[in-house]
Write a structure and sequence with these properties.
Layout (H helix, E strand, L loop, with lengths): L2 H10 L1 E8 L7 H14 L3 H4 L2 E3 L3 H8 L15 H15 L6 H9 L8 H8 L6 H11 L10 E8 L17 H7 L4 E7 L17 H8 L9 E6 L6 E8 L6 H9 L7 E8 L10 H11 L8 H22 L3 E4 L20 H17 L1 H37 L1
Parallel strand pairs: 1-2, 1-7, 2-3, 7-8
Antiparallel strand pairs: 3-4, 3-6, 5-6
């Protein structure tokens, strides 16, 4: 098919805009500030302009909050992005208090981790570096008792299920085309996308929104390895599985714009729809590692923040790099990523650690976000236009549908 014909067909399709907010702990302040700028420039809430919100960990915190209905105006979002900027700056130091054991762990790694056999030191590593109580209180206050099914727009929250006994949505059911798929899906843990899809198309039958609170879904998606323990919770599935128990860890383990598109979004689109994806990053932090340095880390050193979490960092970036070529080719000009590297030695560059809640680092994060928006100012203006046009088209379509309904209702009464 000629490129011009393909582009022409794509332009005629109904646009569906997906917003992907990356993970990154307190670096979530960066996309929060970008969205606050978008809302100021457009005069609209993100939930009025975006069709699908997706992304793991701190991205899930942002996406979910932007889809909580206002208690007095249920068709409008309770929060604007500026409220989430204040959320990070107010709660950051409580969620990630100063880590007293960071330097101690560095010393232990220098001794090839042999001292970790001492029982008193094992408790340092046993339940994650941080008490999840502070994160739990902050998210409870943010979401209340709101359920996933209550989200204003389509919402996708990823987590990784550690327990292979309870298969998640779409795994190992009787629709699996081969015995090999059934066997593969039932072994080990699973990547899970908790979804409430509200695209109102012919594929809407695939929307099996589970019964789960936004709090539990986001707590699971934020349970970053080495930072927090796994989150234990129940999911009520609207089918023969019923209510099952899950132990979930950070969706950042597997989720990124490419895997989210191929795994959670693509099959939800109807043939007459095309996806436009916007990705708001939290800074590129994927360092290259020399073999000598890697071999010196030891078994525990590859997963400790004192070494910038080299193995965890690899987990977070491996699948995205593996799928990037196909993903970029498929979406082409319909993919808009806002991000830049934090890997430089400039004194004003924010700490790449996700748990630095000091006032100095928050100031650097604010400056990083401002510089990013300045660098991509033309692209940001383009995105604002795309978002406003999407809202206007959806609004016009809704009005036309209402008029048609009233027209047929009038003649039916006569």
């Amino acid at each position: 098919m000629p490129v011009t014909q393909k582009n022409s067909e794509s332009e005629q399709k109904e646009p569906v805009i997906a917003l992907f907010n990356y993970g990154g702990g307190l670096r979530g302040l960066i996309p929060a500030r970008i969205m606050a700028r978008i809302e100021r420039k457009t005069g609209l809430r993100m939930s009025e302009m975006v069709d699908i919100f997706c992304g793991p960990s701190t991205g899930a915190i942002l996406n979910t909050a932007l889809n909580v209905p206002h208690p007095d105006h249920p068709h409008r979002a309770k929060y604007r992005a500026r409220h989430l900027v204040r959320f990070y700056e107010r709660e950051g130091a409580n969620i990630f208090p100063p880590d007293r054991f960071r330097e101690l762990r560095g010393l232990l790694h220098d001794f090839n981790n042999r001292l970790t056999k001492i029982s008193q030191l094992q408790s340092v590593f046993k339940h994650g570096h941080y008490d999840p109580t502070h994160l739990s209180k902050a998210l409870r206050a943010l979401y209340g008792h709101t359920k996933l099914a209550d989200s204003l727009k389509s919402l996708v929250i990823p987590f990784y299920s550690l327990d292979g006994m309870n298969t998640p949505d779409g795994y190992g059911d009787h629709h699996s085309p081969t015995r090999a798929m059934q066997h593969y899906a039932r072994e080990g843990g699973h990547a899970v996308w908790l979804r409430n899809m509200k695209l109102h198309n012919s594929e809407h039958k695939m929307n099996h929104t589970p019964h789960i609170s936004l709090y539990d879904a986001v707590m699971a998606s934020c349970a970053a390895p080495t930072y927090f323990p796994c989150h234990h919770f129940d999911i009520g599935w609207p089918d023969e599985r019923g209510t099952k128990e899950y132990a979930g860890i950070d969706g950042n383990i597997f989720d990124n714009p490419a895997t989210s598109y191929y795994g959670a979004i693509q099959k939800q689109l109807a043939p007459h729809q095309k996806l436009i994806m916007i990705g708001l990053g939290t800074g590129y932090t994927n360092r290259s590692i020399q073999k000598e340095k890697w071999n010196k880390y030891g078994s525990l050193g590859v997963v400790d923040p004192v070494n910038d979490l080299p193995l965890i960092n690899i987990f977070f970036h491996a699948s995205e790099s593996a799928l990037s070529h196909s993903f970029l080719h498929e979406l082409g000009d319909d993919l808009h990523i806002f991000n830049k590297s934090m890997l430089n030695d400039h004194p004003d560059t924010p700490n790449i650690r996700i748990d630095d809640g000091t006032p100095e680092n928050f100031k650097k994060l604010r400056n990083f976000a401002e510089n990013l928006m300045e660098e991509y100012s033309q692209e940001l203006d383009k995105i604002c236009d795309i978002l406003v046009n999407n809202r206007d088209k959806k609004q016009s379509s809704d009005k036309a549908s209402e008029q048609k309904l009233h027209f047929f209702s009038f003649f039916k009464k006569r």
